[in-house]
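Sequence in, structure out. Go.
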Amino acid sequence: MDRTTKVSAVGVAMTVALFRGAGAVPATGQSTQPLAPFRSAPVTSLIEQLASPVPEARTLVACALRERRAAAAPAIPSLIALLEDDAPVHPDVCTDRDGRLGGGAHERERTPTSPGRESARALASIGAAAFDPLLGALERSRPVGRRNAAFALGALDDRRAVTALLSHVRDADAGVREHVAWALGALDDARAVEGLIGLLGDAVAPVRSNAAWALGALDDARATEPLGRLSTDADPAVRRQATWAQGAIGDPRAVPALVVALRDSQPGVRRQAAWALGAVDDARGVEPLVQTLDDAQGEVREQAAWALGVIGDARATLVLTSALRDADSHVRRQAAWAPGHVGGQ
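Output:
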């Protein structure tokens, strides 16, 4: 083992000790940059460490390879093999103290990650060279490998993957269907619309939710009425996502379903419905939105005031003036903005 490889192995050991011992972000005085030892290590030495018996170590090395982007191409076969590794790992294992995730991620995840998940991200970061191997991994027998391959294909943003992904919208594993729906939305190709509409009737709520998000991302009016039928879905997360998607599409045919969503039992759905009615910008939404300014939740009233300002119908002037005395400062601020847009002023 050369000197650089030894340094990398020590880095793995330190990170594993920290996360195994504390189960949380390293405490003050401990190493705050777990990827630092790997940034000068040869890719060949990192590939060797993907075979570590410790899940945290495998995850950390996959994160390090993600930082190398195309230079990590020699690791593709090993990363493909790691896609089936679903050992749960603390989400901060690759996180520097300043909150920056190694590999250039934009958000910190609070749910556990895994070696397979980070391998998928590394493969997407490598780029085009990983495309064909990922297509092969999508046909693997183990569901976790198919899930992570689908995610990576969506993150890779190569529309050649659409046909292969569509072949899995009826996959036996719900997690695969969920990731396929997300990937099809990320690829933003109209060929996926019908397959995604079919997933709106899936028996598993996260699949329906991801399909709704994807259809909103595709912005295709063919999805308007099928999404509207989810306004009575049993799962509030599905109802909220479908409501957002209708607003993102902006088809006036969505108004009746969005009015139903304004009366939802969950404030998050009502707030999303108010936003969506503003996004659709149809006068039929004015009266329901006016009534929504009496909602028990301030965040819902705030969004209704915004939507009324966007629609710009003079019927809302009086009630918006009254909202200037609302108990919630956010509602008052939004109500103060809205009248300048109402009635074409």
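Check: Confidence is low (pLDDT under 50) at residues 1-8, 21-31, 98-109. The longest helix spans residues 3-22.
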